[in-house]
């Protein structure tokens, strides 16, 4: 019986086991061992004896880790997520390791959180929640702006960006977008514009493109200066699309009505750990949380029941196809 390791960067979570175990009977050739070790160059030796390793967004799957995996005869890396910016795919290719991802498991899961963050930041929902719990019904300082008839600028109109376009249109917003490729499904209601035009016209800007070498820090001081005042900025894609120091400068300048972040730079040392009794390893998260118009979540756009089961299903299919030498659309 083929065996693959379920090697998670931040400890096997109950929700992962639950969704994979719910359907594992349909894949009798696959054995899963759940471990709590982080995946990196040192822990990769523990994959010895497994055909495949399954990892998540915050695993370190650079050349060093891949070399150790290859030495231990691991042939397949199964990402149980859509993004793969943490995988050195060139190194994997050279080492003969197959990398598979789970694209588009539930675009709406992420897009709905993006709109949730926009609303929470704009309408100060988290601040109000805390005030009301403290019997403080004073609404001073919590004023928001309407989204109706405003302009939503969507950067990246693949699966998640398209879902966000539909949500924004549902709110009665004018939707403009920037992408190198136009999504034909959106042509009835989305106007494609240049990045500069999007930055200057949008009242809500939401990032939905993958992180690449080219767009690293695409939201920097130059981009922020092109935005108009009182803009709402949301990032559910990858933290390094935004230059954090520049974002903080922009927040201090009063540029933003609200900022909603599900992802942020250097989040790998924070997310999925409980740091409530200690200092945060990543200082930029604490700095961002100082501001009343910033709302942050814990890289949980993917975290809905529907998405978890879709991830488990596709990951197991990816594992089976890879073991049987079948190329599928997720390589
Ligand atoms: P997708 O591949 O369907 O769409 C990405 C789109 O971005 C494509 O249309 C592509 O042409 C466009 N694009 C690429 N580079 C661009 C650039 N520099 N400027 C503008 N557009 C650009 O990907 P999908 O499924 O929509 O996911 C998007 C991203 O969302 C993922 O790469 C991942 O980083 C993030 N994500 C976050 C999750 C979370 O839990 N917060 C969960 C899943 C994905």
Describe the structure.
- Helices cover 33% and strands 16% of the residues.
- The chain is α/β, with parallel strands linked by helices.
- The strands form three sheets. The chain has a seven-stranded parallel sheet, sandwiched between helices.
- The longest helix has 19 residues, at 305-323.
- The chain binds 1,4-dihydronicotinamide adenine dinucleotide.
- Residues 82-83, 103-104, 107, 110, 155-161, 178-181, 208-210, 212, 214-215, 236-238, 262-263, 299, 301-302 line the site of 1,4-dihydronicotinamide adenine dinucleotide (NAI).
List keywords for this structure.
alpha/beta, seven-stranded parallel sheet, three-stranded parallel sheet, 11 helices
């Amino acid at each position: 019986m083929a065996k693959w390791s379920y090697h998670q960067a931040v400890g096997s979570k109950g929700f992962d086991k639950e969704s994979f175990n719910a359907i594992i009977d349909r894949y009798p050739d696959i054995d899963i061992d759940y471990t709590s070790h982080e995946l990196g160059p040192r822990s990769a030796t523990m994959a010895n004896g497994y055909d495949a390793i399954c990892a998540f967004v915050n695993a370190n799957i650079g050349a060093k880790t891949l070399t150790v995996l290859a030495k231990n005869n691991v042939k397949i890396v199964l990402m149980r997520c859509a993004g793969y910016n943490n995988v050195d795919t060139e190194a994997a290719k050279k080492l003969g390791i197959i990398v598979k991802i789970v694209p588009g498991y539930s675009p709406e899961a992420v897009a709905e959180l993006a709109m949730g963050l926009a609303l929470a930041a704009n309408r100060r929902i988290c601040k109000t929640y805390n005030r009301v719990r403290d019997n403080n019904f004073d609404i001073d300082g919590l004023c928001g702006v309407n989204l109706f008839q405003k302009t939503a600028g969507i950067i990246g109109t693949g699966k998640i960006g398209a879902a966000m376009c539909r949500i924004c249109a549902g709110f009665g917003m004018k939707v403009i977008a920037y992408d190198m490729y136009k999504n034909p499904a959106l042509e009835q209601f989305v106007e494609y514009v240049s990045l500069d035009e999007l930055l200057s016209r949008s009242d809500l800007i939401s990032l939905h493109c993958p992180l690449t070498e080219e767009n690293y820090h695409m939201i920097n001081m130059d981009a922020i200066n092109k935005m108009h005042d009182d803009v709402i900025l949301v990032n559910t894609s990858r933290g390094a699309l935004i230059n954090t120091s520049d974002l903080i400068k922009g927040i201090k300048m009063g540029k933003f009505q609200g900022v909603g972040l599900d992802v942020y730079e250097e989040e790998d040392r924070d997310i999925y750990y409980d740091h409530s009794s200690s200092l945060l390893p990543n200082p930029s998260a604490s700095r961002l949380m100082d501001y009343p118009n910033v709302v942050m979540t814990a890289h949980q756009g993917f975290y809905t029941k529907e998405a978890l089961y879709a991830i488990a299903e596709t990951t197991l299919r990816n594992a089976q196809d890879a073991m049987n030498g079948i190329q599928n659309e997720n390589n």
